[in-house]
Fold this sequence. Notes:
This protein has helices at residues 8-38, 45-79. By secondary structure, it is mostly helical. It is elongated.
Amino acid sequence: MSKPAPSLIQQRLALGRLRLTSLFTMTGFGALAVLRGIGLDPTEVLDWVVFVFSLALALYGVKLWFDYRRKVRAFEATHGPDAGKQS
């Protein structure tokens, strides 16, 4: 037997979690990349690794943000702009 589809409220909450994940990833790792970039010692390999890794994760956060926006547009186009919102 297949599982029933989650309710509209649960779908909206899942979108909210994706939104928060993308915001924390963008801002947190973006700030870390900036701080590591400011204090970067060009001769230290570990500094470069941390800088590139945090920059890559910040860019992944941007990708998550665009995924979130795409999913919200599709959800609202299917169910309406107020679907799943609690008053």
